[in-house]
Amino acid sequence: METAKRILVVDDDRALTELLEMLLADAGYRVSIARNGRDAIAMAVADPPDLIVLDILMPDMDGWETSDHLLSHERTAKIPILFLTARVAPDDQLRGWYRGCFDYLTKPFDIQELLEKVGQAVAPPSPEIEVLKQQLRQQRIAALEQIVAEAE
Amino acid sequence: MQAVSQIARAINQSLDPTAVLRAAVDAIPPALRVDAAIIRQLDPDSGSLTLVASTGLSEDFVIQRRVLRFGEGLAGRVVLRDAPLVVDDVQTDGRSTSTLRAEGIRSAAVLPIHARGRPLGTLSTLSYAPHRFGIDDLELLQTIADQVGIAIENARLYAAEHARAQQLAELARLKDEFAATISHELRTPMTVVKTAFDALVRNWETLSEPRRLEYVRAGRAGADRLKRLLENLLAVARIEESGASVRVAPLRLAPVVVEAVQEIVARHGRRVTAAVPDELPPVIADGVGLREVLVHLLDNAARYSDPPSAIELDGRPDDNSVVLAVRDRGVGIRREDLPRLFGRFERADRTVRSEAGIGLGLYIARRLVEAMNGSIWVDSEVGVGSTFYVRLPIAS
After folding, report:
1. CB-hemisphere CA count at 13 Å for B56?
2. Can you give the pLDDT at residue B11?
3. Nearest CA to CA, how far is B324 from chain A (Å)?
4. Model ipTM?
5. Cis omega (within 30 of 0) on the bond before B308?
6. B71 and which of A10, B58, B76, B140 could share a cystine (Cβ 3.0–4.6 Å)?
7. Where are the beta strands (DSSP E) in chain A?
8. Secondary structure of B191-218 in the HEC alphabet?
9. Residue B185 has pLDDT above 80, yes or no
10. pLDDT of B68 over the 70 cut
């Protein structure tokens, strides 16, 4: 049997991390939890997971700074990051996409969508999926850029 | 007239009143062939006159006569009578002061400074040699005094307008921030509720009975949090509308403490060590209000610290009061965030404390405690923990 994919969930809200842990474990993933950016980096470097689900507003070190560290560290640079955050503003979303996140989901999220994204993120790489992902990414960025431009 | 145009230029060049005052005092001695000049500004509340610019005087004089009390000196007299005053011989004239004589001044002319009909201060012109201030001199001085008045008034208006604009901008920023914070804070517990129910619906068939119960409990905890958030928002709205409503009476602390602790234990499943002895003197407080205060403080302690670290509540007599202390060993609060901690929209920087709560709890707690004639304060260190104190008067 294939070994379970490992997901690191980073969020300071205890109730939510407990729930995500249950949800992802029920879907067959192995889950570990970090409640702030510093712990997340230490855990990811020590034992790189297959995916990092990352909140943005967190104590001590926020999700932006955490993702900077993760992306600049050779052991963690290739790990997909899925932002899962209450920051819904288009310019925040753009900031996440520019940073090269795998995806950006806002709270409250749809668990069907979350599980689909998680499944895609940990799937073995294939050229077709890569192309689709790039296309989706370009579409999202273009749409958000338009929203931000119209707002200004 | 060269002096006047010089001063007018200075006014046009700068909204900084000190530059204009400087230009005015510097322009006067050569223009009038006198030795010294002083500009004093009037404090409308106390009536005192403060030296704001001077030239040609000894250091001692400037220090000694920096502030003139209401009615003091030639300048004080000019303000009282609101008319110019010319003293041909300071050394013999009864209206002059000993300091002026000691300074060796012979002749003086002092004019009131006005703007828009309001007295703003005085302009003094002094000479060490006998000097006759003619009509032309006084006219020139009056023109200069008027210019100075305009400069002071402009600067005051500008400062007031600037402060007002900043106040409005700050208010708008706070409102935006409040709306964004509420949206964020509501989103988090809402996410918990929605995720729990989504998971139950989606996976009902495959979930074990105990697992289903776990999801239900998580969802209910999220709903409770939403409910408390809304209650806090309503409580703040009520306080803003009509103040914190409390009915104070002699109150035994122990039962109130037990209730508050029970609520937090039920809410967070955390252990709280309470040491509030039964023999503490009764305080003057409102039972319901105090319970709410303690619940807010204990709730913060539970949320900003990790189990199984200790949460403690103790009470001790202190003079004519009792001090209750709620202590946690959690993330702590940065020093720069402490002064604003009990404010309405404020919460310690979200990068330090970001879990749901909006920080309304501390504002509500402060208003309740103050309405009970008590006080509330905090000691905290980042990474070590926080202790919140409540002092209440004892019943005599």
Report:
1. 20
2. 67
3. 28
4. 0.88
5. yes
6. B76
7. 6-10, 30-34, 51-54, 81-85, 103-106
8. HHHHHHHHHHHHHCCCCCHHHHHHHHHH
9. no
10. yes
Q: Cα–Cα distance between B113 and B18 in angstroms, integer? A: 15
Instruction: Note the pTM of the prediction, 2 decimals.
Output: 0.63
| R_g (Cα) of chain A, nearest Å | 15
| A58–B351 CB contact, under 8 Å | yes
Distance between B270 CA and the closest CA of chain A, angstroms: 13
CA A105 to each of CA A56, A90, B226, B383: distance values in angstroms, whole numbers, following the listed order: 11, 12, 21, 31
Please give the residue that has the higher pLDDT: either B270 or B180.
B270
- In sequence order, the β-bridge partners of residue B281 are none
Residue with the two structure tokens 């517990």: B189
C-alpha B385/C-alpha B329 separation (Å) is 4
Residues of A in contact with B218 (CB under 8 A): 15, 18-19, 22
Instruction: Measure CB to CB from residue A15 to each of B207, B222, B350 and give the nearest one.
Output: B222
Sequence-distant (6+) residues with CB within 8 A of B123 are B24, B37, B38, B39, B110, B111, B112, B113, B141, B144, B145, B148
Strands B321-328, A103-106: pairing kind = unpaired
Given the DSSP bridges, would you call strands B118-127 and A103-106 parallel, antiparallel or unpaired? unpaired
Strand partners, B285: B249
Report whether pLDDT(B355) > 50: no
CA angle B162, B165, B169 (to 5 degrees): 140
Whether A23 sits inside 8 A of B195 (CB atoms) is: yes
Instruction: Please answer yes or no on whether B191 and A61 come within 8 Å at the CB atom.
Output: no
pLDDT for B345 equals 57
pLDDT: which is higher, B349 or B92: B92
Q: Are B202 and A111 in contact (CB under 8 A)?
A: yes
Contact B22, B9 (CB under 8 A): no
Q: What percent of chain B has pLDDT over 70?
A: 94
Which residues make Cβ contacts (< 8 Å) with residue B110, sequence separation at least 6? B74, B75, B77, B78, B84, B85, B86, B122, B123, B124, B125
| Collapsed DSSP state (helix, strand, coil) of residue B19 | helix
Does B396 or B366 have the greater pLDDT score? Answer: B366
Whether B396 has a pLDDT exceeding 90, the answer reads: no
User: Which positions ≥6 away from B139 have C-beta within 8 Å?
Assistant: none
Instruction: Give per-residue pLDDT as tens, B314-346.
Output: 999 999 999 999 999 988 887 877 877 887 655
Task: Out of A28-37, A58-67, B258-267, B291-300, pick the least confident.
Answer: A58-67
